[in-house]
Amino acid sequence: MKPLYFDNNATTRVAPEVLEEMLPVLSDLYGNPSSMHRFGGQVGRLLARARERVAAGLGCSPEEIVFTSCGTESDNTALHSAVAANPGKKHLVTTRVEHPAVLNVAQHLEKRGHDVTWLGVDAQGLLDLDELRRSLRDDTALVSVMFANNETGTVYPLADIADICRERGVLLHTDAVQAVGKLPLDLSALGVDYLALSGHKLHAPKGVGALYVRRGAPFRPFVLGGHQERGRRAGTENVASIVALGRAVELAAANIDEENTRVRALRDRLERGLLESIPDARLNGHPDRRLPNTTNISFKYVEGEAILLLMDELGICASSGSACTSGSLEPSHVLRALGVPFTFAHGSIRFSLSRYNTGAEVDTVLREMPGIIARLRAMSPFREGADAPDGGACACSCSAPGKGGR
Ligand SMILES: Cc1ncc(COP(=O)(O)O)c(C=O)c1O
């Protein structure tokens, strides 16, 4: 059977239209875009066109786009920039559900003397905007709130957050790596200062990203060297992938409403079917304020990694919300921030769809999942009647002590 790919928040297949445009840049069009001769000029024009396409898709101007190597670099650059440009401001605000590309930078800055306010979320993953408002101080250098969460798909109200930051004159960054290509965006109206995106989440290749820097927002380069990207990001541009990113953003923007409607309908059928056919299953994250392609479901008494293995045996590929590392099973920081109970958090599976998923694929998942969960529950030490309180033994096959309460 052809494998079924339901892991599009991890990465996506390169769209054929995108591949077609990038291939000539990997063969004949090999000039350096900074070169003065015709080889350089040809490629320089492609670079300029890609910048225009990305800008058009986001509703900003091409000069506000800096190409980078990935979403992580874009996030790092934004945080670094805001901090370096405001040496007197030692306070940052972010959330407990950020991707490590923001989370670990904030933790790093905290260790180096910055004061970080970590905003919590409620059981559906939403922020308390009054808490955000109260957290802002005269020495706040930056607020960083993701546009959409990679694990649950929960979407944050960036326009409202931008208003709050503006009132206090505080810079705002958003990690929109999961949002670009899945949600319509208009940066001319949004009011954020920095926005990170990544090619491989929207059917362009891995190893390319972009950072939007609002005209007038302070900027300090993160990668130093040559004068590429108008001195904002050194290093010869990855032109083939940048061309691909330009095309991918254009494709996504052109079809976003119709694709979202189709993908959401498939996602909803999958979600409803799983919740109805499998007892003790629950949805993680917000039911409505969510990316159209994402559903994160916990199956009580079973362990995510084991579910994934059995799914993979049947050719169904998704992600779990936990990682069995060094002999202990740690539920994801996102599910912990939502307060998902221990016996559910360990058994969480994220299905993330794309324009390439079909109804027949959803049918296959709906047919196979009840059997997988029943098989694992029959072996689970935590099945009904044998439940362990939080803090009991780990449900993972490693039988390490439990992580309950953390
Ligand atoms: C929300 C979010 N931010 C940042 C990243 C990092 O992007 P990249 O893999 O391009 O570095 C990811 C990737 O999973 C993500 O989901």
* Broad structural category: alpha/beta
Order of helices and strands: EHHEHEHEHEHEHEEHHEEHEEEEHHEH
**CATH fold-level label of the largest domain:** Aspartate Aminotransferase, domain 2
* Spatial strand arrangement across the major sheet: 2-8-7-6-5-3-4
Biggest sheet, open or closed, and with what strands and sense?
Answer: 7 strands, mixed
Count the domains. Answer: 2
What does this structure look like?
Helix 9 packs across helix 13. The chain contains 13 helices and 15 strands. The C terminus is likely disordered. With 406 residues, the chain is an alpha/beta fold. It has 2 domains: 129 residues, Aspartate Aminotransferase, domain 1, CATH 3.90.1150; 238 residues, 3-Layer(aba) Sandwich (Aspartate Aminotransferase, domain 2). Strand 6, helix 7 and strand 7 form a beta-alpha-beta unit. Pyridoxal-5'-phosphate (PLP) binds next to helix 3.
